[in-house]
């Protein structure tokens, strides 16, 4: 794997940009896909959002200052793209965010790409019932096993606030699963 600093330099250089972008996509596409998928829940939507994410990364790489890791910067873009997509879809259907999340979870059962069992479906329903920030923090910590410091960089929130959000999310999920 290419060192991140080298990759960024190559992405900003017009001569090496195309090859560097191929490396970037192959390095991060799976991790970003699953991050996006856990937010939007649908495979086809996740593919669309992921494509938009990479387009934004490509178009805005010149603006990347290196204040955070490239990975964190891309995760932030993917998160924002995912949340924007959800808001846009819920508005299109005239639903509030909670009703739209419920609809997405209900559709998971029919999704041919969803490989979970009944327990996984219950967990997804519990996660979908969380407020947006708690849902994001829980997914990043539990499924993606990111450190609080990384999540803090991605969501631009304090580590203490993230720990509180994660703790509350876990409590709410446990309560939901006991029903």
Summarize the structure.
Helices cover 77% and strands 0% of the residues. With 179 residues, it is an all-alpha fold.
Average pLDDT: 89
Task: Compute the number of strand runs.
Answer: 0
Strand content range? under 5%
Determine the N-to-C terminus distance.
46 Å
Return Rg in Å: 17 Å
Shape: globular
> Helicity, in percent?
over 70%
The string of secondary-structure elements, in order, is HHHHHHHHH
Main sheet specs: none
The total of helices stands at 9
Find the structural class using helix and strand composition: mainly alpha
Q: Please, what is the oligomeric state?
A: single chain
Would you write up a description of this structure?
The protein has 179 residues and is mainly α. 77% of the residues lie in helices and 0% in strands. It contains 9 helices and no strands.
Keywords:
single chain; mainly alpha; 179 residues; 9 helices
List the helices and strands and how they pair.
Layout: H1 4-12, H2 17-40, H3 43-60, H4 70-93, H5 97-108, H6 118-128, H7 132-143, H8 148-155, H9 159-178
Helix pairs in contact: 1-2, 2-3, 2-4, 3-4, 4-8, 5-6, 6-9, 7-9
